[in-house]
Amino acid sequence: MNQISPVQADTASRATQPDLRRVDCDPDFWYPVAWSADLRKDKTLAVSYAGTPIVLVRPEEGSVFALYDRCPHRQVPLSKGTVNGQTVRCCYHGWAFGRSGRCIDVPYLGKGKLPNGVRTFPVREAGGLIFVFPGNPEKADTVPFPKLAQTDNPRYKTKHFSPRVNCHYTFMHENLMDMNHQFLHRRQMGQIKARFLGQDRGENFIEARYSFMRCAGQQPLAERLIFGKHKDLQGREQPVEEVVTIRTEYPYQTLRITDKDGDLIMDLWTAYVPVDKEQRVTQSFGLLSILRPQTPLLIDLIWPALGWFTNRIFLEDKEIVELEQAAWNEVGHDRNVEIFPVVVGLRELLARCGIPHGTTRPDTAPATPATQPATA
């Protein structure tokens, strides 16, 4: 009996699977859309989820609220308006909307029946981020909120990053999950080889574990300061000193590094949020927590070097995933030949948990009723 090669198996799998780059993010999850520090009191901030315009509003008192960022009158962005107490007032004719989305005042209407309101989005703030729930709001209280690295643990210092990348979010998941691409980072990392240690899978997650072996070149300074100096073994195989665990637990992704004793050294949490309607532009939000060394203030001294190092690595990844997206744009469909079982499983997970492109839009939910009392 003829055996099926990995390439043949992948070709057969792709024939029965949807084009992964035409699978949209499921909106029924909590997605970060802004950093808390970017929204000041009595101000608005315009953000977007998959082409849906959203305005974040932070009143002088009370929590942040989020509305559909279009005044129903002339479709002018409410984010161009002004905040007054618990309302945002459109910059054009002064229509005012409360945190419930209801229109509570039209200055020239008097006490007549007020027009339609706008859709609201559930909001939460955590880890220095503002999250919205762009899907069915009735699910917001039952969908688990993600654990955000070690943001609440004083033993760790956390770095924020939020790069925008011109690619489908699935390319980002694949890039981080597949540690076999270290050849790409040889100028930053030296010559290292990923060793696959195993994987786990579930209905909504896939996890891969790796260790790394240095083949040639010097250990980068930032890596040495965080993990300690790795000895030159003069050609002998390097033992497992750290274990890197990468997990996509839909729709989020994490990377955790533990030492040989199992103690957590580094904890990365990231979300890839589609910006445009076609979901070809991704806004990443990441929290990178590093264990503070025993020497006081050492983490503050190495922080700039760590930022420079991680940024250089990311820029190389950014260029690659954008080249992948450009190739997809050119041919109009997914022609990737995937042979690494973990990434094959990851693609199946993303296809299963996502939704077909164009199936639903978060802004299609009805707004508040047309006839409303003048209350917030």
Automatic annotation (TrEMBL):
Q: Which CDD domains match?
A: Rieske_RO_Alpha_N
Q: Which UniProt keywords apply?
A: 2Fe-2S, Dioxygenase, Iron, Iron-sulfur, Metal-binding, Oxidoreductase
Q: Looking at the keywords, is rRNA-binding present?
A: no
Citing just one GO molecular function, the answer is: dioxygenase activity
Region listing for Disordered, in residue ranges: 357-376
Q: Is this entry keyworded Iron-sulfur?
A: yes
**InterPro entries, sorted:** Cholesterol_7-desaturase, Rieske_2Fe-2S, Rieske_2Fe-2S_sf, VanA_C_cat
From the Swiss-Prot or TrEMBL record, give the protein name: Aromatic ring-hydroxylating dioxygenase subunit alpha
Low complexity: which segments have biased composition?
Answer: 359-376
